[in-house]
Amino acid sequence: MVVGDDESSHEVEQDPNPVAQPASDASLAAADAAVSVEGDGEIQSLARRIQEALSVGKRHRFWETQPVGQFKDAGRGGLPEGPIEPPTALSAVRPEPYNLPALYEWTTCDMDDEQICAEVYNLLTNNYVEDDENMFRFNYSKEFLQWALRPPGYFKAWHIGVRVKATKKLVAFITGVPGRIRVREDIIRMAEVNFLCVHKKLRSKRLAPVMIKEVTRRVHLENIWQAAYTAGVILPTPVTTCRYWHRSLNPKKLIDVGFSRLGARMTMSRTIRLYKLPEATATPGFRKMELRDVPAVTRLLREHLSLFVVAPDFDENDVEHWVLPLENVVDSYVVESPETHEVTDFCSFYTLPSSILNNQNYSVLKAAYSFYNVAAKTPLLHLMNDALIVAKQKDYDVFNALDVMHNDTFLKELKFGPGDGQLHYYLYNYRLRNALKPAELGLVLL
User: Fold this and answer.
1) Which CATH class is domain 244-420?
2) Are 310 and 187 in contact (CB under 8 A)?
3) Which end of the chain is more exposed for a tag (fewer CB within 10 A), N or C?
4) What is the set of active-site residues?
């Protein structure tokens, strides 16, 4: 399911004629964007946890029809691990697109086309995911969208738009990208569906369900039947639940825009001192990743990701695409031994700014998100402290990290504060016998 906004989530949940879909959304982290890294917001956090707890007991009419883990099966032994339903014959997949309301038409969005990419950017910038208090909205750059939507083996047909027939205005968007995800020993082709966005003025037109059906149809035509996806709400049934942690890099700005608040008995000057970082990195051989490092980083990543139950199956082409530095999109650093010149460690983060709404002094919150990190010879604490230093040097305001993989070993020590929202991971048409701990997950979805 794609739950990029409340309207689309509600539409799908109430859809009277649901279809199987390998949908996903890795973007509900925006709900974390208005948290206090000083520990404030306890009332909102408590209210959210109560609401989530109550949602477990309510009916999920849409998801009860889907090949996903069901709440009623929790605790039942004997259910096999693996695909819930077998794939159907490709000849049984609907050959023609689903019908849209009469005023609208499908379009395939060629992200290589600068004009179309600009249309998509403008639609998302003005209509995509906001936090609960309407203070921040994700602001994916055009370069980020092209990076996120054109991995090796991507399908242009999975970048789907809806236009008004009369004016050709782009009013809705949904995408999918293919990936290989390893679950224990099995490597599975999966779809990651993202960026479901309907123009705010059209959210009564029930476009979201038919968009999800259409991307599902196109994914099925490629003989892909599983997906990994995330949501900020509880659906049947999370394979794990993670939390975002936030490390202030520019605490005065974060407090000024309402992202965080001064802690009890803290002054602004004390807060700034608390989060002050060294001027230079400390690890010998710490440098920006280069193209020549791709084979070594691939080896490091594959060995590291083998430690986790669910993780991507990256080859060198994937590593070159996903982690080779790209200005204002993804930053990656390696540690090269001064003695042997061997690449021993690796860290990375991607750039996802948010628009700051209704603030006279600031318009953009520049956020870094921890991506994949491998600490083989350098302690992870030292490696990530250097990542914070270079992020600060590049004028990021905040550094975010999920408590997946081994991240929980450095979060508190490096002065990250827990966010007040949670991110739930799901597998579509694939059952795990038991829920995972966040530390057993090796997958970061955009």
Assistant:
1) alpha beta
2) no
3) C
4) 446
